[in-house]
């Protein structure tokens, strides 16, 4: 059910952008990038819950598993920071004369506007 609401919201954002003379592809890309960030944040929530469960169990094996879980969590935090930085660069470029706000699809770095 959440998917239908997301689809309608994305469609409305694109339609509003077209009517306002804005670039709908840029907004769709921004939406896609934020969904990628949310995916990593959801994974982090799961990792934190696993770490808490392992810690509460006080079992040696579970406690040792936390090392790898916390390492993944730390890597994901760095990834989120990088993703937000890329979103900021693309969004700023799009509004300061550049058109690379909708280039590519992934979380790769865009070209910075001078």
UniProtKB/TrEMBL annotation:
<dbReference type="InterPro" id="IPR040462">
    <property type="entry name" value="EARLY_FLOWERING_4"/>
</dbReference>
<feature type="compositionally biased region" description="Gly residues">
    <location>
        <begin position="98"/>
        <end position="114"/>
    </location>
</feature>
<dbReference type="GO" id="GO:0009649">
    <property type="term" value="P:entrainment of circadian clock"/>
</dbReference>
<dbReference type="InterPro" id="IPR009741">
    <property type="entry name" value="EARLY_FLOWERING_4_dom"/>
</dbReference>
<dbReference type="GO" id="GO:0048511">
    <property type="term" value="P:rhythmic process"/>
</dbReference>
<protein>
    <recommendedName>
        <fullName>Protein EARLY FLOWERING 4 domain-containing protein</fullName>
    </recommendedName>
</protein>
<keyword id="KW-0090">Biological rhythms</keyword>
<comment type="similarity">
    <text>Belongs to the EARLY FLOWERING 4 family.</text>
</comment>
<feature type="region of interest" description="Disordered">
    <location>
        <begin position="93"/>
        <end position="114"/>
    </location>
</feature>
<dbReference type="Pfam" id="PF07011">
    <property type="entry name" value="Elf4"/>
</dbReference>
<feature type="domain" description="Protein EARLY FLOWERING 4">
    <location>
        <begin position="22"/>
        <end position="102"/>
    </location>
</feature>
<dbReference type="GO" id="GO:0042753">
    <property type="term" value="P:positive regulation of circadian rhythm"/>
</dbReference>
<keyword id="KW-0539">Nucleus</keyword>
<dbReference type="GO" id="GO:0005634">
    <property type="term" value="C:nucleus"/>
</dbReference>
<feature type="region of interest" description="Disordered">
    <location>
        <begin position="1"/>
        <end position="28"/>
    </location>
</feature>
